[in-house]
Design goal:
Elements (H helix, E strand, L loop, with lengths): L1 E5 L4 E6 L8 E5 L4 E5 L10 E2 L4 H12 L5 E4 L3 E4 L1 H24 L4 H7 L5 H6 L4 E2 H9 L3
Parallel strand pairs: 4-6
Antiparallel strand pairs: 1-2, 2-3, 3-4, 5-8, 6-7
Helix pairs in contact: 1-2, 3-5
């Protein structure tokens, strides 16, 4: 889906960006290089993932949006984020490094729970609160699926 949303003052490109959700979109204003990023950005370093997120689709979505070189993000969780392309690149780099670490630990013979414990951060509160829907283990599962 690459449609346009027009207002009296602005014209936004509607870009399908699956990963966080299959139907996720962002809005990009090319003249001002604004990106209304929905849940695409969230933070440069994630500590947990939802069970239904597709990390490989997320990586592809990040690459496509970074190529637009947005200057300013409007993130529904972080508000206004300067240096949009750079911040999205930081998230992309973090996810790629995390995926490599997970694959390396898997090659060493660690199981899913051991790999999750080896990942940075503490997800206990979110894992318990969401019944496991948000967890580091979901990163392990997501990166273990084929791209």
């Amino acid at each position: 889906m690459d449609d346009w949303l027009e207002t009296p003052r602005f014209r936004f490109r509607v870009i399908h960006t699956p990963g966080h959700a299959a139907d996720h979109i962002v809005l990009y204003e090319p003249n001002r290089r604004w990106l209304f990023s929905g849940d695409l950005y969230l933070a440069p370093r994630l500590r947990y993932l939802r069970a239904d997120e597709d990390v490989y689709a997320m990586l592809d979505s990040l690459r496509r949006v970074i190529a637009l070189e947005p200057e300013l993000l409007f993130c529904q969780h972080r508000g206004r984020v300067e240096q949009g392309a750079a911040m999205l690149s930081r998230k992309l780099d973090f996810l790629l490094e995390l995926g490599e670490r997970i694959h390396d630990l898997r090659r060493r013979g660690l199981d899913e729970a051991e790999i999750a414990r080896a990942l940075p951060g503490n997800d206990l509160l979110w894992r318990v609160w969401t019944g496991g829907d948000f967890s580091k283990r979901n990163f392990v599962r997501a990166f273990s699926r084929q791209a």
